[in-house]
């Protein structure tokens, strides 16, 4: 299973803890003007894949994930009746709909600001906020339940890679998510058939067992392979490394959730992505886009990355 035409290229900017509200407004204005220019000169008109999710030139979908404090700028600058050229994402959300969770933010709060995507389980959250694989699974389910598209991040450390444990680590991180989704989709795990190694290691949460609200025909899930050793280090994985990991991930999803879901799954690469190396990743097997950190903060750099992604997409 390689790149499928129905899977739109997805380019996601993760700003992390950068840019004030004023800086965000300035960035959005410049980005909007540039994307409008590209859309007007492209051979295909802009289209949408789902609510408020724009596709540039029919080939590339652009998502910006600013800090929570800057989310309001999107709805403020782009009212609901304005056709968007890029979608809004969040960098995190809580697994519960509301409650006494100081400093957290819910799916409903994100939706109020026009958010359609949410990054879940980024390695920095796993490291600094001690997020467990099970918490990532619960957050993913909560996102899907509320109509948000989760971008689930997985990846190994340098030591784990050196020990030849990459696939074991990816599977460990994926298993709770896939198991919970299989239960919610009323797949084989829901009937107790959990002998497959992709689903059998740990029981799913009660919340997952209660969920029968997911529709396999509507399920939209994104997985980002971000090797921890490559994030912010300037030491990016090779396209072959990324392709090998992505192929493993897609096979794992197929085993757990079926070929239909696996064929629709978009897999991103993240980790020291730059304008110079983006084309190689997008040409790699089973890679559908990128989750970009530092290179997305500079408008010229980000626009170059988007343009190169568009060229790769148009060439397929």
Automatic annotation (TrEMBL):
GO BP: gluconeogenesis; glyceraldehyde-3-phosphate biosynthetic process; glycerol catabolic process; glycolytic process
Record-annotated active site: 122, 226
Enzyme Commission (EC) number: 5.3.1.1
Catalysed transformations (reactions): D-glyceraldehyde 3-phosphate = dihydroxyacetone phosphate
Family annotation (PROSITE patterns): TIM_1, TIM_2
Compartments where located: Cytoplasm
Stored Gene3D superfamilies: Aldolase class I (3.20.20.70)
Keyword terms, alphabetized: Cytoplasm, Gluconeogenesis, Glycolysis, Isomerase
Gene Ontology, cellular component aspect: cytosol
Enzyme class: isomerase
List of residues binding substrate: 14-16, 232, 272, 293-294
Pfam families: TIM
Known pathway: Carbohydrate degradation; glycolysis; D-glyceraldehyde 3-phosphate from glycerone phosphate: step 1/1; Carbohydrate biosynthesis; gluconeogenesis
GO molecular function annotations of the record: triose-phosphate isomerase activity
HAMAP family: TIM_B
Family: Belongs to the triosephosphate isomerase family.
Record's function text: Involved in the gluconeogenesis. Catalyzes stereospecifically the conversion of dihydroxyacetone phosphate (DHAP) to D-glyceraldehyde-3-phosphate (G3P).
Subunit composition and interactions: Homodimer.
Annotated NCBIfam families: tim
Protein name: Triosephosphate isomerase
Species per Swiss-Prot/TrEMBL record: Candidatus Carbonibacillus altaicus
